[in-house]
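Sanity check record (used in CI):
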Amino acid sequence: MNRILLLLTLFTQIAFSQTDKNFISGIIINKNTKEPVPYVTIYAKNGNEIKTNLSDESGVFNLQNLSNKTYNLTIEAIGYKTINKTIEFNGKNYVDLKKIFLEENVEALDAVVLRAETSTVTQKIDRLVINVGKDLTSVGTDASSVLNNVQSVSVDQQTGELSLRGNSNVRVLIDGKPTNIPTDQLLQQIPSNAIKSIELITNPSAKYNPEGNSGIINIELVKNTRQGINGSVNANTQYGRNFRHTGGVNLNYKTKNVNYYGNYNINGGKKNTFGKLDRVNPDQSTNYQDINGNDDFLNQLFKVGVDIDLAEKTSIGVSTTQSFVDLDYRNNTIISETKNSTPTSNNIFAFTRKPYNQTYNAELHQQFGENKDHELSLEAMYSDRTQPEDSQWSNSLNTNDNSTNYTEDISNKNNLTLINLDYTLPFAEESYIETGLAYREENTDNENFSTQEVNNIDGDPVSRDLSNFTYGRKIYSAYFNYKQQFEKLGVQAGLRAESYHIDGDFHTDVDNQDSSINQKVNSLYPSFFATYELNEDNQIQFSYSRRVDRPSIRQVTPIRSWGTPLTTSRGNPNLKQEFTNSLEVRYNREVGIGNVSATAFYRNTKDNISRTISVDPTMPERAIMSYDNFDDTNSYGFELASYLRIQNWWRLNASTDFYTREIRGFVAGENRSVTNNRFNFRVSNTFTASDKLTFQLSTMYRGASESLQRVRKPMHMVNTGASYKVLKDKGTISLGVSDIFNTFGFRFNSDAPFEQDGEFKWESRRITLGFVYNFGIKSKEKENDRGQQGQEGDGGGDMF
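Expected output for Outer membrane receptor proteins, mostly Fe transport:
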């Protein structure tokens, strides 16, 4: 508690400290393209006093609250030459540098560092953007490792379930587009080095698909757009209890009007998870389960595309993303009555799964007039996914039991079509209208042919044979947004209308059962944002949105997705949509050494979708994990975050949050109600020892969590790492150790429908050794451009 009070005191002191009122402003421009350069870092230093700022999307920066002193101004941007300048106020309270032309570092372009040492955060009107630095990529080799160290986000290492602000109903986008790859598999397929930034959109506007009650997580992948031939190669090796390896290459070739780009990433190896489970069955008998699971996997992901400027204001882009997975899994579960007694069952569950996903995108962008915000965009996407699986269940202590010795042949096919049309119209001064249409169609066909012996409705043993599930849904959408800036007050109001259609059919050979589902729901989704600039350094924002969480394909498919001898997981085709009304208030303050923010939110959810555990009617000793709708829930939360440059050599990113959520539902034959209070914090430090050597140290604590059926105990870990620039700064070697003290594990207990105490541990303590090499070759066209500009006397870094 003392640490919490100390942290709150630090936030308060920083937020309300008083400073002077001088300022420096300017616009950052690319010297060659004459385009604004966003997210450039600007430092103003006088002795131990350091002020920092980032240029916005229009290249504008404003360093506030400066003393009437002389400052050394430094302007830095990846891939550009650094500018240094002495600034004197000379009795004035401001210095307007106007246009500042940055020159690309073309002579040393092969030494461009594409990834910063430290992750940075940018607050936009409707989202938080985390630009991923080496402090995040060093903690692991895939996207789940990176997200697990991002504020407000957590990843369940056992199931791969992703949650935002304690709620798993979150929508994941890749480069702003949906995917039909299940989230748990998607996060394992994306290497950490392929991630450019992560956007947390906790209260999306009407422009966005309203799915995901807790918001949207958009993962932006690396895409180079620099002139000439540019790219990077990377390789990582990681060891926990097994070795894993990651490698990749990122390339682009850009001429005046055409940019070709592509990347390929591969990661593979072995993973191990072990656990134990004590259970009391409904008949009061007990069993102890010793569980050991091993993955042997190979993930491959590549993306190629081209962007073409057909005219000054017209551009098109096409791309494709292909992913291949080869997974062999083996789970050995030994069951006995007590921990040290003779085993009564020795079960092996093994499967081979080979998902293949192909996605194709096409885009058209048309600008009108001189205002670049006056634009029409048309986007189309098609994605097709197949996932064949062959599995085998066996019990070596009872080989004649056909209920525990059987095979399954599973076919899973899914396709997704998405078409978006968006139009933005600026009018008057600081006023905009956004409107658009969208069509989305998703189709799934699942089949499972099983030789398992079960009891039919008459109690006779029969083979399960074929189970088949087809599911289709179509969504028609239209939205309207209005934006207006009234001096210090910015307002955005919007409304989205959607018509949601689903059709599903389920068949099983056991008792020749058939069922179907048909729904048509029309809904409206309003949103509202208001941002007020209290002064140059203080901003407050209020937002509201209505959201929906539609059951995922996995949540509605009544065919097993995974299992152990005494637990199996499958979906519920009768799930309904859940709707959420979300309110949020955010306060943001720029301080001399960085940024601090505080956020409070409230959510009310109707027909909440949550995990359930029930008894398998065909095997009373087996538990079925599925999903169901529960009563309305209320959630409250408070978050604090800071991104500070304490000293020239020390950067600190810290965040803490507290959530409370009321949950009610009918479980195990009774009405239940719980209040889930959860506290989390993360602290990340980056220490710059020299121009080449950097150290990282981070810690994370995830508080206890309670649902209607189980209580998860707290989890915590400490990570460290270092990176060193080599080969004339063209390459970087990194070394990271995650969960140094091996404390990060999943422990829980539950009382419905079984009394259980469980613990699972995966390879959280890992050593990761990585290498990245960046290169570039300037094109002749680029050389000619530079020569002409040189003759014009346009010196690099001049300020006007």
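Helices lie at 2-15, 134-137, 143-147, 183-189, 553-556, 780-791. If this sentence no longer matches the regenerated tokens, the check is flagged for review.
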